[in-house]
């Protein structure tokens, strides 16, 4: 336990530290007060002195250039803070308390001192507003009243400082608890403060953002309009920005709606931006539409599969018989002497017609089979799958097509954990992504194109990236890339179901499927599958 005097001193020091003012830079408001105090009292020196544990520190100083503090043991203010009223020393050289003080016996040769105690709102004396002269003098009543009036101004400034500090703390608490991203910028548009939501949104810690130009966080093509908007905010005072694009460190674009306002903070101005991220909501809306489409296709498939498959089986069987009969008839007739030439031509034409019919029927059968994937879950149960091994199997299957088109680059995480998935269905997804990537590149020049397959871990998921250096997907097409029957290939080159099926299969395995593309650069499909046991509810499949 502290003795009573020490206990008070500890509480006094705690009160002083609440203001967070020690060792701060000079401020004109305080400097003006000491200038006026020196003038009104007719002295060369005036100080705002705050008494710390072992020193007195000067918040404002006129008459002692370059002096920021002195030791407390030689401080006149140590005596002044023990009084409720102004301490006046008319001639320190004749006062036994101060005659031997080195500040009296030596520079600055103090003779006259008057100090008015500066108090906190809760009654603790923090320091003094003091005036000093090198000559003995008296302080008349008017000068004493002036000194007390000025020290009350110091107390008011300190009170305001504490209120600002408390307001900032409350604002910071509000920032940290806000569900929206909050950015505080200086007049030049540089980030000086962000809240945790903004950190998560941008995928960067606050220290990485401090000092960064806010416009540089936008996609390159959107930076100049953003810079102009921030510039107009300085004159308009408020601003609303809809669908503002920002970028993650990986280059993914996301959209925020921003309400911006100009804030006056003392003599400086700040730009306060509050952004609401609609990216996830828009993705969920798109996913809801996608799920409705898939459900419609599933219902369609369940209803018509039986109606189509049975007649198709008869047609295929009859075409098979017809093909056999044609071959027998061709052998018998063409073996006879004097067989007309036009019969040979008819046999060739009949062969082509039957082959085309068989191919068309098989195509219809395959479409119906593929559509049936939407109406039920994969047959095989989820089990641990070696993703790297499954990818290697698929790449071996596609080797013939791949070697004519592109150079293969594999970047595998050798310590990749297994995922819980249906291996056959997962291989089907991988094969579809690889084949699509190969078909997106011009065959015949493998030295010009690259197929890159990368595996890694990301936030509880195994991530697989399949990237090509092909022509890319137009932005207006990208949102429909997983739609059933939608294809960018020429007519007759695909059913438009491959990516839709992959999309559905990945969702049923609890994963996510995303696509990112830039025309003239290439496309990357990203597959995320959960590590460990599968989740109870499948995760949403996203197209970014």
From TrEMBL:
CDD domains reported in the protein's UniProt record: HisKA, PAS
UniProt keyword annotations, A-Z: Coiled coil, Phosphoprotein
Enzyme class name: transferase
GO MF: phosphorelay sensor kinase activity
InterPro entries the UniProt entry points to: GAF (IPR003018), GAF-like_dom_sf (IPR029016), HATPase_C_sf (IPR036890), HATPase_dom (IPR003594), His_kinase_dom (IPR005467), HisK_dim/P_dom (IPR003661), HisK_dim/P_sf (IPR036097), PAS (IPR000014)
Entry's EC annotation: 2.7.13.3
Catalyzed reactions: ATP + protein L-histidine = ADP + protein N-phospho-L-histidine
Coiled coil segments of this chain: 150-177
Pfam families: GAF, HATPase_c, PAS_4
Residues annotated as domain Histidine kinase: 303-533
Keyword Coiled coil among UniProt keywords: yes
Domain PAS: 167-237
PANTHER family registered for this protein in UniProt: HISTIDINE KINASE, SENSOR HISTIDINE KINASE
UniProt name for this protein: histidine kinase
Top-level taxonomy: Bacteria, Pseudomonadati, Myxococcota, Myxococcia, Myxococcales
């Amino acid at each position: 336990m502290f003795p009573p005097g020490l206990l008070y001193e500890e509480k006094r020091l705690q009160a002083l530290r609440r203001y967070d003012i020690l060792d701060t830079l000079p401020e004109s408001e305080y400097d003006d007060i000491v200038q006026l105090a020196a003038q009104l009292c007719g002295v060369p020196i005036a100080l705002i002195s705050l008494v710390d544990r072992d020193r007195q520190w000067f918040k404002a100083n006129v008459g002692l250039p370059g002096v920021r503090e002195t030791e407390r043991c030689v401080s006149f203010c140590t005596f002044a803070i023990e009084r409720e009223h102004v301490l006046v020393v008319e001639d320190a050289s004749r006062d036994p308390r101060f005659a031997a003080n080195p500040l009296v016996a030596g520079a600055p040769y103090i003779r006259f001192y008057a100090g008015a105690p500066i108090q906190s709102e809760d009654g603790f004396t923090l320091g003094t507003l003091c005036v000093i002269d090198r000559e003995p003098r008296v302080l008349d009543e008017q000068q004493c009243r002036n000194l007390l009036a000025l020290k009350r101004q110091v107390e008011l400034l300190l009170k305001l400082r504490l209120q600002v500090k408390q307001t900032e703390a409350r604002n910071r608490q509000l920032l940290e608890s806000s569900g929206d991203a909050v950015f505080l910028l200086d007049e030049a548009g540089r980030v000086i403060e962000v809240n945790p939501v903004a950190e998560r949104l941008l995928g960067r810690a606050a220290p990485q953002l401090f000092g960064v130009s806010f416009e540089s966080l936008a996609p390159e093509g959107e930076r100049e309009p953003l810079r102009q908007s921030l510039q107009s905010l300085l004159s308009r005072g408020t601003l609303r920005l809809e669908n503002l694009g920002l970028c993650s460190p990986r280059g993914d674009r996301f959209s925020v709606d921003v309400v911006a306002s100009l804030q006056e903070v003392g003599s400086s101005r700040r730009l306060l931006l509050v952004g609401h991220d609609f990216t996830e909501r828009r993705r969920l809306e798109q996913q809801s539409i996608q799920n409705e489409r898939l459900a419609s296709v599933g219902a369609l498939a369940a209803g018509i599969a039986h109606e189509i498959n049975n007649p198709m089986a008869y047609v295929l069987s009859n075409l098979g018989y017809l093909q056999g009969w044609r071959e027998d008839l061709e052998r018998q007739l063409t073996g006879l002497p004097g067989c007309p030439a036009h019969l040979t031509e008819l046999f060739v034409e009949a062969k082509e017609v039957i082959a085309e019919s068989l191919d068309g029927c098989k195509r219809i059968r395959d479409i119906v089979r593929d559509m049936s994937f939407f109406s039920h879950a994969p047959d095989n149960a989820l089990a641990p799958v070696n993703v790297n091994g499954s990818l290697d199997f698929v790449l071996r299957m596609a080797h013939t097509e791949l070697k004519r088109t592109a150079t293969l680059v594999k970047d595998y995480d050798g310590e990749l954990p297994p995922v819980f998935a249906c291996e056959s269905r997962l291989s089907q997804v991988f094969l579809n992504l690889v084949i699509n990537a190969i078909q997106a590149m011009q065959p015949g020049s493998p030295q010009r194109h690259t197929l890159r397959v990368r595996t890694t871990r990301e936030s509880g998921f195994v991530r697989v990236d399949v990237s090509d250096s092909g022509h890319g997907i137009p932005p207006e097409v990208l949102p429909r890339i997983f739609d059933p029957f939608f294809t960018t290939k020429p007519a007759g080159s695909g059913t438009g179901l491959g990516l839709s099926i992959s999309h559905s299969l990945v969702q049923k395995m609890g994963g996510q499927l995303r696509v990112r593309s830039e025309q003239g650069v290439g496309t990357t499909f990203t597959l995320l599958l959960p590590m460990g046991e599968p989740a109870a509810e499948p995760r949403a499949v996203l197209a970014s």
